[in-house]
Amino acid sequence: MLNLADFSATPGSAAKNLGVIIDSDLAFDKHISNVTRTAFLHLRNIAKLRNALSLHDAEKLVHAFITSRLDYCNALLSGCSCSNLNKLQLVQNAAARVLTKTRTFTKTRTFTKTRKLTKTRKCTKTRTFTKTRTFTKTRTFTKTRTFTKTRKCTKTRTFTKTRTFTKTRTFTKTRKCTKTRTFTKTRTFTKTRNFTKTRTFTKTRTFTKTRTFTKTRTFTKTRKFDHISPVLSALYWLPVKFRIDYKILLLTDKALYGLAPEYLRDLISCYEPPRLLRSQGAGLLAVPKIQRSSAGGRAFSYKAPQLWNNLPEYVRDSDTVSIFKSRLKTYLFSLAFGN
Fold first, then answer.
1. CA nearest 126: which of 202, 203, 200, 201?
2. How confident is the model at residue 327 (pLDDT cuts 50, 70, 90)?
3. How many folded domains does the chain comprise?
4. What is the C-alpha to C-alpha distance for residues 135 and 189, in angstroms, rounded to an integer?
5. 125 and 89 in one domain?
6. Predicted pLDDT at 270
7. Residues 152 and 187 in one domain
8. Where are the alpha helices (DSSP H) in the chain?
């Protein structure tokens, strides 16, 4: 018993911090028992509603109430005893059985995308030309010439020579000339030219793009003692042990690229060989020496470099976090189920 400012404090065997129950020997027995008890409570409630839910909606409920609890702070469970990890694995197995309740369930989603593009261009060009030229030339000439000439001459001559002679001569000359000339010239020209040009173009281009995607997920109802691995593989769920390794490796990748807290970045360092070796530029991490594998082997500074160095090179050399997560899950999935 401890006395702190006149208050007596009794040391306990476990303490709760951020939802994680930590015991004195870091076995996490009480924490795992609490997680399994709460998970089974929610799983029973989901099982009552399973007949009224579709697979998609039931899977959302399982991830919200079951998977989230299995993944919360699961990096602390690295190196725990197999009995404790088996308890968590039983929760995941039960969730898979509740989710795949039917005898034979085949989910087939067929997406058929058909794009039919028909382009029709009908061009009709009609050009009609009518050229009419009418020329009428009329020339009328009328020439009239009227001449009237009158000459009246009276000549009187008187001679007196004992004889008286009187000669009177009267001349009247009248000339009337009328000349009329009429010319009428009429020339009519009519030129008519009709041109009709018709050009009809019909261009039809038909494109048909059909893309069919078929996703089929078949689940077979598993009884209590049936093997659950095929169902987990069909659901693409990693077992609990590999989910723990996934979380540790993801934190390691973020720490290397400066996306993790500083206290995690200080726990890992790059491997530098004492002499020039081929592993110098392989992106490996230095694994510290430990005295006890039961205690020191569970530390992040030891477990993270050990798991990181066992990864294939193509997984370690991922450019982004999203690519690393995809490749890492595929690699762990192949380790868990061998496919």
1. 200
2. very high
3. 3
4. 5
5. no
6. 85
7. yes
8. 29-49, 55-62, 68-71, 82-99, 229-235, 240-256, 262-265, 300-309, 313-316, 321-337
Over the stretch 107-137, which tens digit does the pLDDT of each residue have?
556 656 666 656 666 666 666 656 667 656 6
Give the pLDDT of residue 196: 67
Across the chain, mean pLDDT equals 79
| 111 within domain boundaries | no
Q: What is the pLDDT of residue 297?
A: 81
Query: Are residue 244 and residue 338 in the same domain, yes or no?
Result: yes
Same domain, 338 and 242: yes
Q: Does residue 233 sit within a domain?
A: no
Place of tokens 């995809």: 326
Note whether residue 96 is domain-resident. Answer: yes
Instruction: Assess contact for 279 and 271: CB atoms under 8 A.
Output: yes
> 93 with 129, same domain?
no
What's the domain range around 87?
14-103
To the question of pTM greater than 0.90 for the whole model, the response is: no
Residues 183 and 264 reside in one and the same domain: no
Give mean pLDDT, residues 308-322: 90
The first and second tokens of residue 266, run together, are 């200080």
Distance between start and end Cα atoms, the chain: 56
pLDDT at 102: 45
Examine the pLDDT at 300 and tell me if it is beyond 50: yes
User: Which distant-in-sequence residues (6+ apart) come within 8 Å of 202 by Cβ?
Assistant: 120, 121, 122, 123
198 and 146 belong to one structural domain: yes
> Could you tell me if residue 108 is inside a domain?
no
Residues 60, 99: Cα–Cα separation, whole Å: 10
**Cβ neighbours for 254, distance < 8 A, ≥ 6 positions apart:** 260, 321
Q: CA-to-CA distance for 227 and 241, rounded, in angstroms?
A: 17
Residues 250 and 170 reside in one and the same domain: no
Which of the two residues, 294 and 331, has the higher pLDDT score?
331
Q: Is the dihedral of CA 273, 279, 281, 284 positive or negative?
A: negative
Strand partners, 108: 216
Q: What is the pLDDT of residues 205-223, one digit of tens each?
A: 776 666 765 655 555 556 6
Find out whether 127 and 196 touch, Cβ atoms under 8 Å.
yes
Residue type for position 77 = L
